[in-house]
Amino acid sequence: MKGNYNSIAPFYDFLSKAVFGTAIVNAQQFLIQTIPPKSIVLIVGGGTGWILEEICKVHAEGLQIVYVEPSEKMVAISKKRNAGGNKVSFINEAIQDAAPNNKFDVVITPFLFDNFLPPTAQWVFEKIDRLLVPEGSWLFADFQLVRKSAWWQFIMLKIMYLFFRIVCRIEANHLPDTDVLFDQHEYKLIRSQTFFKNFICSFTYRKSKAIYAT
Ligand SMILES: C[S@@+](CC[C@H](N)C(=O)[O-])C[C@H]1O[C@@H](n2cnc3c(N)ncnc32)[C@H](O)[C@@H]1O
């Protein structure tokens, strides 16, 4: 797997807040409101794990969470988070290598897909899709560029990719088209919001019902 966030794990959240203020947190707070009680939840690329504390504010207990994160430094920080009465199992591996035992009611991919070139994005998408139950929710947050995006967003994204390619050795140099992946796999967009002048998007998708052969 390409990409390693170990070197910036201790100051990742500081950097993210310095650049985006509360937008990254707000985008994920928006998503986690819709997690049903007692769900089995998969978080992929959760970083330092502050999302576990945010989830705990919505559901103090009753969730079973599997947290897949390849950076051991990120996992070490995440393990110190207060997840309340929710049960969290950590898998310190890339999602490509992880083999969770469960199927999930909810999957959360916060700023994960921007790490991947299109072929990896498709592979990872299909793996996560197989782990989600029919009619399960996929909570997706990431950066977006649309036709009407402001010029500074194009430049900011270029600088971010330059930084993360040098510091974390990520493979990607542009955003993969995840809208197409959700369309191709017949996901339904249930809820959406944008943040940071449309540069950040949060989408709640519902997986379609399983189609059984008759
Ligand atoms: C841009 S950071 C976002 C962190 C966090 N979600 C946040 O919003 O603060 C991307 C995270 O995805 C993780 N990641 C990168 N490649 C991954 C992969 N193949 N499988 C799982 N996680 C991955 C990185 O280690 C990193 O913690």
TrEMBL record:
Entry superkingdom: Bacteria
Domain Methyltransferase: 41-136
Pfam families noted in UniProt: Methyltransf_25 (PF13649)
InterPro entries: Methyltransf_25, PABS_CS, SAM-dependent_MTases_sf
Protein name stated in the entry: Methyltransferase domain-containing protein
Taxon lineage: Bacteria, Pseudomonadati, Bacteroidota, Chitinophagia, Chitinophagales
